[in-house]
Amino acid sequence: MKFTELLNNIDSIVEKERYEKKKREIFDMPEETADELYIKSCDEDDE
Known about the structure:
Blueprint: H1 3-8, H2 10-27, H3 34-46
């Protein structure tokens, strides 16, 4: 994604991160590391 696209979408990106943080707090889920997120994203591409 281009940097300008990220800047244009910053509000939705921040809102999504707030939602994910709240979800982790509610369900007491451990925060995923960058490595875990990368592995998940690779697994999704394989399907």
